[in-house]
Amino acid sequence: MFEGVLIRAYGGFYYVKKGDEIWQCTLRGKFRLGKGSAALVGDRVRVTPVRGTTGRIDEVLPRKTELFRPPVANIDQAVIVFAVQDPEPNLALLDRFLVLAENANVSPVVCLNKADLLSGRREHEWLRLYRKIGYPTVITSTKSSEGIDELRQLLVGKTSVFAGPSGVGKSSLLNAVQPGLELKTGEISSKLKRGKHTTRHVELLPLAAGGLVVDSPGFSSLDLPEMEKEDLGYYFPEFASFTPECKFKGCLHRHEPQCAVKRAVEQGLIHQDRYKHYLNFLEEVMQQERRY
């Protein structure tokens, strides 16, 4: 038996990287019958050799992190990619993914792609907002090569996932970071004004400079993970300096009197759109609680 990293699951087979070798594996029966923890791309697994470079995954080792959208394990950071336009940035979706990453203890990086479409502006106002909050940001363009070296350095020595809506250029960015990956890329639908899916499955790719990266299918919606309603505010970092001043412990920053977070919103110290997204997410989390 040996240990390896699950890099791809496709067509009923699981491909495990052991050094420079790729082993084609099946899952032990208890996993297929739902009695064990399902194997995710990124998992460290124990494999029993069967014949040649085929084997059977007998054990999934404990995970340090786990995302459910995209489904991937043991990720250090999430590069959340949105475009300047084509498609237009959906900041509510961006905030959803930031909450998901914070909830999973995965460090987020906000990437503004297609910078060649900025029409003379250096960056969008919304990107300045996220930088001010404290999120690492990078501005990129595969056409002008702007920011590609900076992005490449952010990936060195880490296991990263590229995530975001379809059509924002995730696969194109990875092709620019490491020429030779030859990932499929797509165009924006002129009728629907959104991207076409070009990545069909989750795959972990080794980078020449060191590190691993996950290319994943795009999405247009994202459910929040299960959590306690009192925890949601912790996933909005700009709330942190105001929360201790709230009158009530466990303040949900919604209807409570003498709430320092609501006061900060009124004073312009917390962006109103971020706060609106928080309230929408809070309602969603509370609905989840009622269902369970």
From TrEMBL:
It is found in: Cytoplasm. One of its GO terms (molecular function) is GTPase activity. One of its GO terms (cellular component) is cytoplasm. It holds the Pfam family RsgA_N. GTP binds at N113, K114, A115, D116, G164, P165, S166, G167, V168, G169, K170, S171, S172. Binds 1 zinc ion per subunit. Its EC number is 3.6.1.-. Residues 64-222 form the CP-type G domain. It comes from the Bacteria. Keywords: Cytoplasm, GTP-binding, Hydrolase, Metal-binding, Nucleotide-binding, Ribosome biogenesis, RNA-binding, rRNA-binding, Zinc. Residues 73-220 form the EngC GTPase domain. Its cofactor is Zn(2+). One of its GO terms (biological process) is ribosomal small subunit biogenesis. Zn(2+) binds at C246, C251, H253, C259. HAMAP family: GTPase_RsgA (MF_01820). Belongs to the TRAFAC class YlqF/YawG GTPase family. RsgA subfamily. One of several proteins that assist in the late maturation steps of the functional core of the 30S ribosomal subunit. Helps release RbfA from mature subunits. May play a role in the assembly of ribosomal proteins into the subunit. Circularly permuted GTPase that catalyzes slow GTP hydrolysis, GTPase activity is stimulated by the 30S ribosomal subunit. Monomer. Associates with 30S ribosomal subunit, binds 16S rRNA. This is Small ribosomal subunit biogenesis GTPase RsgA.
